[in-house]
Each structure stands twice: as structure tokens, then as C-alpha cells.
């Protein structure tokens, strides 16, 4: 196995202590402002995996264990969740804040992302709480609260330079994904449509809900359109509704994700930015 270590602020001696667990010295592969180290040819065991989990998390170091050495050029599609992945917020929670309902909506959001609540039910319940809200609240959230996650611009620039197509697939809303697609120059976007009548939210979603199954279908549909296999896709997400699309990817990336997602992903980035995929695919 090959081990990639990354950190925003870990000292070299902390990296060496982690590398010592593997019996392989760490080679510095830092570049572009990203701090990264590599240990090749590790004999992995359950015991070593548990030690790496504990030591890396304690030192705020992200690690990736890979059987091979994939390259960014091996992939043709980068598919991303939006809320709490490409951007730092959950848009629906911030919209609800305009109604003074953020705690109630956030509680439902968290339960859904942990996989404790079926997504269609969670979205229906949350959107219903927004009934009567002036639609101008959506623009306020976009203008005042929406921010890209750390490393997003570097990651997207590298993907585009490698000729990789980009897909934003979200259980959120077209108001935000359409604007993100345009501003970032993404190739595809797919999400839910909020119903607006007379300038106010009705508390309903138009058409089918973009849930876990629809996210997977969207990734597969775009792969077919591009004439590529699903294992040529990188898929990034943070919640339980991302697991289906992550399961068909060649590389799945859990970004600051819920435990159920970190456990099943190829790579988990808990501390570094989205551009943390670049040293892994160098």
C-alpha cells in the first residue's frame, strides 16, 4: 500500500512519528502550498490502520491509503456535492435562518446527512417550513453567506487543466447550483427546483427529488454522455445521500464528512482543503 499524509500545520517530527508506525520513511512531496508526504510499500494490517486513524486524527493529519498510484489524468469526470462540500454552508439551513427556523431545519439536515432519516422525507419536511418566505431570501443567502470550501478553486483549476469535465449534483436547489455552474465554469449541474409563486416560496419542490438514487443516476448518465466508464469519475461528498454515487466512482472522496461516509470512501479529507486530492493523484 502507498500512504499519502497531508496537513495544514503539522510539524515534520509529527509526520515522522506517524511514518514510523509503518516502518517506512516519509518522503516530502509538498508543492503548490500543499504540505504532503509519501510512504510507499506499506504492509497494511488492521492494527496499523487503527494506529494511523488515531495518530493522524490527533495530529490533524489527513491520510490516504491506496493500492496503486492513480493519476489525475486517469479520470475524465469530477462530480461534486454542493452543500458542505463544494461550499461551506447548507443553503437550506441559511434560507431557514431568514425565517428564524434554522435550528429546526438544521436538526433535520443533520439527521439526513448521518443517514438517520430518509432523504425525500427530510427534504419535504424542511422545504415545507419555508412556506411563505420571500424568494429574495435566496439571493441574500447567495450574496451574503455562500462561500467556496478551502482549496476549491485550486482543485477545479487542476481538473480543468487535465481536461476533466465537472458535474455539480446536489440535493439542494437550482437557484444556487445554476449560479455556481455559471460562475465557476462547470460543465453540468443538477438539483431540486423550489416552487415560487408571486415571489414567495410555496413550501414545495417541483418535479422529482434529487436524492441518493438520483445522484447516482446523474453521475452514470453523464458518464454515458461522455462515453466513459463510471470508474473514470472522481466523486466527492459529505453526507449519506452521497454514498450511492460515491460507490460507482473510481475514486470517492469524503470531505469533512459524516462518519458513515468517511468509513466507506476511498479517501477522507478532514483537515486539508478540496485540493487535498491533488497530492494523492500527482
TrEMBL record:
One of its GO terms (cellular component) is cytoplasm. Its EC number is 3.1.3.3. The active site is at 81 (nucleophile), 83 (proton donor). Its cofactor is Mg(2+). Pfam families: Hydrolase. Keywords: Amino-acid biosynthesis, Hydrolase, Magnesium, Metal-binding, Serine biosynthesis. One of its GO terms (molecular function) is magnesium ion binding. Pathway: Amino-acid biosynthesis; L-serine biosynthesis; L-serine from 3-phospho-D-glycerate: step 3/3. It catalyses: O-phospho-L-serine + H2O = L-serine + phosphate; O-phospho-D-serine + H2O = D-serine + phosphate. It is an enzyme of class 3 (hydrolase). One of its GO terms (biological process) is L-serine biosynthetic process. Belongs to the HAD-like hydrolase superfamily. SerB family. This is Phosphoserine phosphatase.
